[in-house]
Amino acid sequence: MTDCRAFLIVMDSVGIGGAPDADQFFNGNRPDTGANTVGHIAQARPLHMPVLARLGLGAAVRLASGQDAPGLMSPPQGLWGGATQISRGKDTPSGHWEIAGVPVPWDWHYFPDTAPAFPPEVTARICDLAGTQGILANCHASGTQVIEDFGTDHIRTGWPICYTSVDSVLQIAAHEEHFGLDRLIALCQSLAPMLHAMRVGRVIARPFLGEAPGEFRRTGNRRDFAIAPPGRTILDIAQNGGRVTHAIGKIGDIFSHRGISHLHKGKSDADLADHLIRLGSEAEPGSLTFANFVEFDTNFGHRRDLPGYAAQLEWFDGIAGRFLDTLRPGDLAIFTADHGNDPSWHGTDHTRERVAVLGHGVGTRAIGLVGFSDIGASVLAHLGLPAPDHGRSFL
Ligand SMILES: O=P(O)(O)O[C@H]1O[C@H](CO)[C@@H](O)[C@H]1O
Ligand SMILES: [Mn+2]
Ligand SMILES: [Mn+2]
């Protein structure tokens, strides 16, 4: 067995523009054509990201989208390129599964942007499981806004706040104390099989605290109940090959906890960064570490907070530098993303974009434009493991 280790790090929603099918994806009724998360942030405010810029982030933005990314245009000294997605969803499971070798073969079920958004049988099932006479919201919504709008009614009536988005999700927001955190999680878990049978990707528990509008805030106790990937992922293949696999952050939920030896969670990306840096030193020879950093997406992309997104990128770049310093000769680290979420864009939903592929540990190399599945295939090739069912190694 090889002693080489592999680290695959997904910066959630850090897209680089240029998706050839962006015109088929929408925020509201306007297409995602031209959306470019990193490009537009850097054009609004030059980014200081010396570590990822040195690997080739700026060059990747230009390759994928034809746009310049001020501050990031240093000559690449890592493995660098862009990746294009083929799965029909611009959501987290679609992106991660395809990176892990399983493009999504079906069309997800999406709830219409109508009021009500959910069919009567779904509403009835939620009421039945929750023991309530009704549900609140029942529409497309932003998660921070929906608790502002319905939090007071929720505390008064005890009814769960149920909402969706352009993604294939049913989200339930409920108060950790008035409704109860365990009760919310049990509700989502019990509801999930019905929704998965409808090809709804995830049921998500969104607990919050606070007693009045202006004070309501979501907590770190979010839980996702996702459909299991419909094929062998790189985590499955690595584990079947006798390797230790480490999942950091949301990776456990995204892969329905399959193929994972050790799960490392935290209340914030700062906690996850500590796990990543520690595993850089401690992960076993031959192991695979798969990490997701979610705050780019949840705290800044959906909130359309461009200065916040920029600051998070610069913070993460420092983490990336500290992490890379822990690696040994023969290790591979790849930084990539699962979709876009351009904070300068209209709407509040993800944006269809290409993503960067930035590799450390295999010298300077331009890989051009590859497919999402080629990322996972390359990780397995580096570890000396059998190839996945989709994708080709670019190493
Ligand atoms: O506005 P919030 O609740 O953060 O919702 C976002 O989170 C969901 C899951 O990632 C996405 O579908 C998007 O709607
Ligand atoms: Mn995502
Ligand atoms: Mn998101």
TrEMBL record:
Enzyme class: isomerase
Signal peptide positions on this chain: none
Pathway this chain belongs to: Carbohydrate degradation; 2-deoxy-D-ribose 1-phosphate degradation; D-glyceraldehyde 3-phosphate and acetaldehyde from 2-deoxy-alpha-D-ribose 1-phosphate: step 1/2
Short name of one Pfam family: Metalloenzyme
E.C. number(s) listed in UniProt: 5.4.2.7
Binding site for Mn(2+) 2: 297, 302, 350
A molecular-function term among this protein's GO annotations: magnesium ion binding
Keyword hit for Magnesium: no
Binding, Mn(2+) 1: 12, 338-339
Cellular compartments annotated: Cytoplasm
Cofactor: how and how many bound: Binds 2 manganese ions.
Catalytic reactions of this protein: 2-deoxy-alpha-D-ribose 1-phosphate = 2-deoxy-D-ribose 5-phosphate; alpha-D-ribose 1-phosphate = D-ribose 5-phosphate
Family of this protein: Belongs to the phosphopentomutase family.
Protein name in the entry: Phosphopentomutase
Native species: Paracoccus haematequi
Lineage, opening ranks: Bacteria, Pseudomonadati, Pseudomonadota, Alphaproteobacteria, Rhodobacterales
